[in-house]
């Protein structure tokens, strides 16, 4: 089985580490790769969209699972799919949408694998309705540290440790996933402006139950009375009757647009407070005060950045940090304070979104809890960023909140137990299941997972 020594980073392009990259093409090769991991162990990796160091393993092996990418069985009548863990959500959409089915949960990119979706227990704009991805997994096959392939189902400790477990319980080989029925590949979208954070939260609290999908872009450079001003976008899959006559002949057509890739080299300092402030002002002003029933392509609604390959390069060689946290209902004052601090700090973030989470899922390290989640991108070379985010971490932990491990690249380990109450259960199961430490990552070492 071929292997090469490469430098590996997350999507944020920070903290690279060197590892042996191994690409299994069969289940048998995956078993061999795990058994031959060596003293530094191994970690499975999908399409590399974890922002931090979750799919890196300095001095060890990284198992590129994208070679296992077969769709085995589609139950068109019942609405489920059995596929390899290396299948991307993009490919599933290509296969399933013409049949009238959609993935149950998608994040802001469709270029993640099914295995990665389970390992990070990804969430999307519909968490308040549908929960995380793992809620829709019927069963999975997991290659554990002893070389055994186990069938794992919801309601078991191993499933709850694997859902959100960042690949540290084993290598997911296949999964059976329930699907969402759709009549078209268009979305019926309502857009409105919110004047500040309190206005935004009031609108979400009062009316979010009417929509399957909901997200708000926030201007984190706005200050004073405009702090937290936002553009709120919500919608659902458009029924066939909502389509114009010319579109009804091919209602399930799926042809995402693609723009030229971002250049390999982008000058440092392109994203400054001034340039991002100008972008944010234009973005907010061009949004409608209130518009209902707009038809949008599915790809434009869910994955606008996927149309620009390698968009993460725009942050320059230094890369960027995506910081995402959640605080529970009743902790709105914590959210207000953090948004205010970010605004006063003048963090140049043009990608900042707020969502409401619904009921939590059972994964021990699954991120969502009922409440408010804010995610923002920040250039990694911003002076004093590390200390500033450490302060925000402490405030989040004190409020009973947590940060998202799939996007983390710098959290201090002493805060982890406060954020994830089932952490010791996870560690105990890992010690029993993998006493030799076969599965390990830079994230796991940093946080002593």
Structure description:
The protein is an alpha+beta fold and 449 residues long. 25% of the residues lie in helices and 24% in strands. The chain has helices at residues 27-35, 89-96, 114-119, 127-130, 157-162, 197-207, 273-286, 298-302, 332-345, 385-398, 416-419, 423-433, 442-447, and strands at 3-8, 17-22, 42-45, 61-64, 71-75, 80-84, 101-102, 137-143, 149-152, 171-178, 180-181, 186-194, 213-218, 230-237, 290-297, 320-328, 352-357, 371-379, 402-403. The strands form four sheets. The chain has an eight-stranded antiparallel sheet. The model has no long low-confidence stretch (mean pLDDT 95).
Looking at this protein, list some descriptive labels.
about 450 residues, alpha+beta, five-stranded antiparallel sheet, about 25% helix, about 25% strand
Question: Secondary-structure map with pairings?
Answer:
Elements (H helix, E strand, L loop, with lengths): L2 E6 L8 E6 L4 H9 L6 E4 L15 E4 L6 E5 L4 E5 L4 H8 L4 E2 L11 H6 L7 H4 L6 E7 L5 E4 L4 H6 L8 E8 L1 E2 L4 E9 L2 H11 L5 E6 L11 E8 L35 H14 L3 E8 H5 L17 E9 L3 H14 L6 E6 L13 E9 L5 H14 L3 E2 L12 H4 L3 H11 L8 H6 L2
Parallel strand pairs: 2-4, 3-4
Antiparallel strand pairs: 1-2, 5-6, 6-10, 7-11, 8-9, 8-10, 12-14, 12-15, 13-14, 13-17, 16-18, 16-19, 17-18
